[in-house]
Amino acid sequence: MKIIPLAADSLGTRSMATYVEAGQTRILIDPGATLGLRRFGLKPAPEELDAYDRAVGRISTYAVRATFCFVSHYHEDHFRTDPLLYRGRRVWVKDPQRLINAEQRQRARGLWAEIKPIASYLEKAEGSYFEFADATVKASPSLPHGPDGSPFGYVTALTVNDGFRFVFASDVQGPCSAVAKAYLIREQPDLLYLSGPPTYLENQVGTAEIQRGIEFLLEIIDATGCEVILDHHALRDRDYREKLGRLYETGKVVTAARYLGVSEELLEARRPQLWGRERLESRPPRRRQKIVPS
């Protein structure tokens, strides 16, 4: 199985877009990307805009190869309405009616209206199962977006199995939910890709939630022996490696960038420094004062 993160926070853009290929089974997962409009009181720096353009380009390029598309939920960093991503493809998308908050329900209506006339097959993802010639795909029930009872709604995880089991669990944030943890252990992944605990929001969500996400992921690693790609929310914090040190000590956890063997680009986390450099480089040179001998 070939697994290629196309865009990720460790690659400079809010995204978990991924391409999976198992023989002739070619899957595009969560083909969205966005930028944090305001962080540290600042809009995105030019480097972030460039990274976003590259991300959208990669997603569109790999979409051409895909025969199947999966959307885990309706946050805008996980889907786009571009019809070229879905035309002629089998598409699984999170249920737009059940276990969904009002904001995502509105986005869901727009996406389903866009996809329905052009997809070869459109289905609610939850609980779906399909056997391709080279692999099976299976969608989870709705899992909490973060802790149980999260106001951010629910997501759907995807398992791709060709003898190697890849589980994509998007924004379970750790996971922070005991329900999500139990499901992921039951899936017995060889490789698990998920959003890490949102340490950049620790003052809002509380330290206990962050620690719960760490503990639950350690339990999953211990129970399954899986490798983990941990990215997205966790990579919006410059100190993520220190705060998630217990996970990295296992030797089982990497970012999407490290999985690809490239350098991490924590652009959003470094936004103040990026703007500081931008202003410094755009500042006109100081005029040298003429010294008049006295």
Describe this structure in words.
The protein has 294 residues and is α/β, with parallel strands linked by helices. The chain has one domain (2-282): Metallo-beta-lactamase, Chain A. Helices cover 30% and strands 21% of the residues. The chain is built from 9 helices and 13 strands. The strands form 2 sheets. It has a 7-stranded mixed sheet. Strands 1-2-3-4-5-6 form a 6-stranded mixed sheet. α3 (178-187) runs parallel beside α5 (207-224). The chain is globular and about 55 Å long. The N and C termini lie far apart (79 Å).
User: Oligomeric state of the chains?
Assistant: single chain
Gyration radius, in Å? 21 Å
Average pLDDT: 93
| Beta fraction | 15-25%
Count the strands?
Answer: 13
Unreliable spans:
288-294
CATH superfamily: Ribonuclease Z/Hydroxyacylglutathione hydrolase-like
Overall number of structural domains: 1
CATH-derived topology = Metallo-beta-lactamase, Chain A
Structural class: alpha/beta
Please describe the biggest sheet, giving its number of strands, its sense, and whether it closes into a barrel.
7 strands, mixed
Helix content: 25-40%
